[in-house]
Design a protein that fits this description.
Strand content: 25-35%
Oligomer: single chain
Radius of gyration: 19 Å
Helix content: 25-40%
CATH topology of one domain: Enolase-like, domain 1
Strand order of the largest sheet: 4-5-10-6-7
Structural class: alpha+beta
CATH superfamily of one domain: CO dehydrogenase flavoprotein, C-terminal domain
Shape: globular
Number of strands: 14
Length: 279
């Protein structure tokens, strides 16, 4: 077995350009997936590349290094209020031990349909930076996630950062997760929201995204269009139903039925919107 632990991005990209490797960062997804079987012959451990860590808050862009842990995101004191949903989601991923080791880049590259970090990042119009020896390119997160365990990563590429356009300061963000217990659980449904209201109480901007109800996380584009310009009120929110969730295609599995997921999603969307209205 070959094991390589580069300490610079250039060295990692050079290795990826010459051969195929299993890339490991925090290992919180990779190691459980290999219980009872051997790791691949070539393991590239990128956890020592410090230049891929940290959060940079600029005037226009929040840049999150791929090796930034969920604990760092959860407790970061300088993130804009509109990223509050992402911070709440970070505190629901696994338990504290998982949050201390698991990375945002690893979570996205694992491409689980139930990934809790995905819905808030979708509401934030996040993009990913992909690097190789040929250079760098950027993709929207929705274009990067292709299906269960499938991404747009090309051979030789490494996800190096997540970039988020700084939302307006008056955006109200939320996140809600439904699971069989509070921690160490895969979501039955998770929902994220980002809402901006006018002084008159009408919806100026709204972004809603769901995980565990489709092959990838999904924005609720139809519902967003229907709610823009409307006065956000309890009576309006009560009208939201399964007919507004046309982008979703939940399945029956061990955690819940498709019907239950769809009904739960309606309730969770309603609750997040009423919370946004109160805040």
């Amino acid at each position: 077995m070959a094991y390589l632990a580069p300490t610079t991005l250039d060295a990692a990209l050079q290795a990826l350009g010459e051969d195929s490797w299993l890339v490991v960062a925090g290992g919180t997804d990779v190691l459980p997936a290999h219980v009872g079987r051997s790791l691949p012959e070539r393991v590239l451990d990128i956890s020592g590349i410090d230049e891929l860590r940290g959060v940079e808050v600029g005037s226009d862009i929040v840049r999150i290094g791929a090796l930034t842990t969920w604990s760092e995101i959860r407790s970061h004191p300088g993130l804009p209020e509109a990223l509050r949903g992402l911070q709440v989601a970070a505190g629901t991923i696994g338990a504290r031990q998982v949050q201390n080791a698991g990375t945002v880049g690893g979570n996205l590259c694992n491409a689980s349909p139930a990934a809790d970090g995905v819905p808030p990042l979708l509401t934030l119009d996040a993009s990913v930076e992909l690097a190789s020896v040929q250079g760098k390119r950027r993709l929207s997160l929705s274009d990067f996630l292709l299906g269960p365990r499938q991404t747009a990563l090309q051979p030789g590429e490494l996800l190096t950062a997540v970039e988020i356009p700084v939302p307006p300061a008056d955006g109200v963000a939320g996140f809600s997760k439904l699971g069989s217990r509070a921690h160490l659980v895969i979501s039955i449904v998770s929902v994220a929201s980002l809402v901006r209201l006018s002084p008159a109480g009408t919806v100026e901007d709204i972004r809603l995204a769901v995980a565990s109800c489709a092959p990838t996380g999904k924005r609720l584009s139809k519902l967003e269009r229907d709610l823009r310009g409307e006065e956000l009120s309890e009576s309006l929110v009560d009208q939201i139903g399964p007919q507004d969730l046309v982008e979703l295609s939940p399945i029956d599995d061990i955690r819940g039925s498709a019907e239950y997921r769809r009904e739960a999603c309606v309730v969770m969307v309603r609750r997040l919107l009423m919370e946004a209205c109160r805040r």
